[in-house]
Amino acid sequence: MSFQNPVFIPGPTNMPEVLRKAVDMPTLDHRSPLFGQILRPALAGVRKILKSESAEIFVFPSTGTGGWETALSNTLSPGDKVLAARNGMFSHRWIDMCQRHGLEVEVVETPWGAGLPADRYAEILAADSAHRIKAVLATHNETATGVRSDIAAVRRALDAANHPAMLFVDGVSSIASMDFRMDEWGVDIAVTGSQKGFMLPAGLAILGFSQKAMAAVEGARLPRTFFDVRDMGRSYGANAYPYTPAVGLLNGLKLSTEMLLAEGLETVFARHHRIAEGVRAAVRAWGMELCAEAPALYSDTVSAIRTPEGFDATRIVTHAANTYGVAFGVGLGEVAGKVFRIGHLGSLTDVMMLSGLATAEMCMADLGLPVRLGSGVAAAQEHYRATAASLAQAA
């Protein structure tokens, strides 16, 4: 691999130099008043990114997986029932975590490439007259398949059934890159991490808790110590942490949220959509299809591209790394060897993306796939040229 080349994986993402320098800071006494000048703006910035007025924000030294565990352990008790669909590797892993915690999971098996089955959720919730289901899990953007699901539709299913279950959303590869509306969608816990839309190294689990979720915390009986939001909240009151924080990452998070808000969230989302549309134009020019079953499901942060039947898609990723020093994402779980993934989120421009598409074309041509050099790049160029004016106006 080459450090000179951008990465085209779904995370960790490319880091702007200014954020890399913000993380690389001298040692700071995390019990000094100066730490509060980092912590408070970082928490406030995250709340704005989530489009929430009242969410309690918690940032743990961890990853998105630790964020899942924080959500479960702080609000649920052994034997509680949760509802979840398995439509990709990351929804699968959250389900597995629930089961390891002694929770009862009603799993709705869903094709990999499909979105969350809100209609099936509605049926199950309406039939749950005893309200045994305490939480509904939803993966907003399934990173393994490049599928974005309709979280507002899941909220409508809960409301139509007049069901009190909490709504937990994995927004690890969507938040800060794609539109996320915590308050409007009635999300009770939103989970993300530092290494994707926030353009930072891995190391922070970032969560928003609604007031309803906070009310569930005291009665929850699953064990938690490191991930106890009560300890974290009390420490925040004194501009501190219950243990040693990742000060450099928090300083990066403070600056990252400032940069995203200065760009304007709608502009950030439009930039991601524009770059993603260029990738999709390239995929069509290659004569290939996305794993996502329909355009309404297309993710603006990652594309999982199906290769021809009988061809091992992992060869493209391996060849790109070994021959050209460029990183793409492999297929995971049920789509391993069937897709390769192009990440197009975080600190990325159309010019950077064109280099990734050109590399993918060279790899496919090298490996004997019927892809004409320049075809996908040209298709993406046409899209970027046609939309450059709108990008400039937004800037």
What does this 3D model show about the protein?
Strands 1-9-8-7-4-2-3 form a seven-stranded mixed sheet, with helices on both faces. A four-stranded antiparallel sheet has the order 10-11-13-12. By secondary structure, the chain is an alpha/beta fold. Strand 5 and strand 6 form a beta hairpin. Helices cover 43% and strands 15% of the residues.
Elements, N to C (H/E):
HHEHEHEHEEEHEEEHHHHEEHEEHH
Number of strands: 13
Q: What class would the helix/strand composition place it in?
A: alpha/beta
Low-pLDDT regions: none
**Helix segment tally:** 13
Query: How would you sum up the major sheet?
Result: 7 strands, mixed
CA-based gyration radius: 21 Å
Strand content: 5-15%
Mean pLDDT, all residues: 97
End-to-end CA span: 33 Å
- The portion of residues assigned to helices is 40-55%
Strand order of the largest sheet: 1-9-8-7-4-2-3
Overall 3D geometry?
globular
